[in-house]
Structures are given as C-alpha cells and as structure tokens.
Specification:
Structural class: mainly alpha
Number of strands: 0
Shape: elongated
Largest sheet: none
C-alpha cells in the first residue's frame, strides 16, 4: 500500500525534487540525466510489454474458445 502512495506526487513535491536535482547536478548535467531516465523508462515499458504480451494472447484465445 505504501508503494501506491509513492506514485501519487503532487506538483509541489515534483518542483521540490526538480529544484534539489538542479542544485545537486547543475543546469548542464540535469537534461542529460533526465534523457537517460526517460530512455530507461522506455526500455522498462518495452520489456514489460514483451513479458505480458504472450499472456494477453493466451487470454484472447481462451476467451474465443469459451465463446464458441
């Protein structure tokens, strides 16, 4: 339940995190870090899709068999 609460951060918290990141890494390094983070999230989504895709296809096949 605690994990679900971490996903819902408001605008104020997001701006605070961005401000701390700007102070820690500086204005030149921060866009590079965010680009890397974006690419990491993209790769994670792609990997998750590859894992769940066979299960979704099997579910569709099972639904078709049940309807017949």
């Amino acid at each position: 339940m605690m994990t679900a609460q971490l996903l819902f951060i408001g605008t104020t918290e997001l701006m605070l995190i961005a401000g701390i990141g700007l102070l820690l890494f500086g204005g030149k390094k921060l866009p590079e870090l965010m680009r890397g983070l974006g690419q990491g999230v993209s790769e994670f989504k792609k990997g998750a899709k590859e894992v769940t895709e066979p299960f979704e296809e099997a579910k569709k096949d099972l639904d078709n068999v049940i309807k017949e």
